[in-house]
Amino acid sequence: MNKPAPLPLAGIRVVEFTHMVMGPTCGMILADLGAEVIKVEPLSGDATRRLIGSGAGFFPMFNRNKKSLAVDAKSPRGREIVLRLIAGADVFSENFKAGTMEALGLGAEALRRLNPRLVHVSHKGFLAGPYEHRTALDEVVQMMGGRPTMTGPEGRPLRAGASVNDIMGGMFGAIGALAALLRRERTGDGGEVASALFENNVFLVAQHMLQHAVTGKPAAPMPSRISAWAVYDVFTVKDGEQIFLAAVSDSQWSAMCREFGFDDWLADERLRTNNDRVQARDWLLPLLRERFAAFGAADLAARFEANALPYAPITRPEALFDDPHLAATGGLAPLSVPADASSAGHAFETRAAAAAGAGRSAPAGA
Fold it and tell me: For the chain, where do the domains classified as CATH 3.40.50.10540 start and end?
């Protein structure tokens, strides 16, 4: 039997001082790609291990495939251990407030003198500038960065239901680390990488900024905006089930109308092109809802799939554990949850989304 090929970052060592989501996401991705990631925690352990409510999954999700070491980095012995680790590392990653690492003697300048080949990755709320002193959270930068006004109805800004900026910030940190490692192959020198929540969020809303620049009009929130496509919505159908259905091109519109016998609409000049149908949404969508209301969601899904039309069931996160596609593609990796990260009070086995398709079987911060 052939041995599996080594993962791309095999032989790379990462030392991280991280907590919560942003910094740990960076290390998780690098670990899933084969790096040895050593998470340095305080003697009391990462506080994320003890979160409940919406934070109950943070530690096992974002710290899998890592080794953990509890150290008092403020003590002489602890600092000696940390410096010895970093001296032999390829990447150092941290996501504490500005000045925290410098106060520990672990700032970028000090670590560069210790290890000139080190790639130093900082995850912050804001890049250096007028806001850098502020305490940032995912929701803070979402609100000040315009994203919730694009989701909630007028006057009711609504944050995303997932830690989108924290996770994206960690992804950008990992991308930067990979780029710096590649550059090191050419130059022999390490470097510094910075990722920040606020700047991430601005990237997420950049399309709406450019929409204003192009049209001269502010982008409307999702519930009230003029869609780019006529059929692109959630429909409540037979037995109160819901399903997302779309037809985003003229050929898809024609296929949908032919499949369901909407010949009257195929002959209607008011609906000839997608832009025509967008202008007709006010009267077209209520009629389409009436026509689809008699169908079951499974029937609509089957007929849309048979015609290569976009559709999606409305799925809750926990249902994804049984998703047949994820099971077939390795999109869920086996995961061992330690007792101190489990609200059940004992260790157990589960599955988690595999970063970059790496799919390693992994303990969560052993």
Answer: 13-207
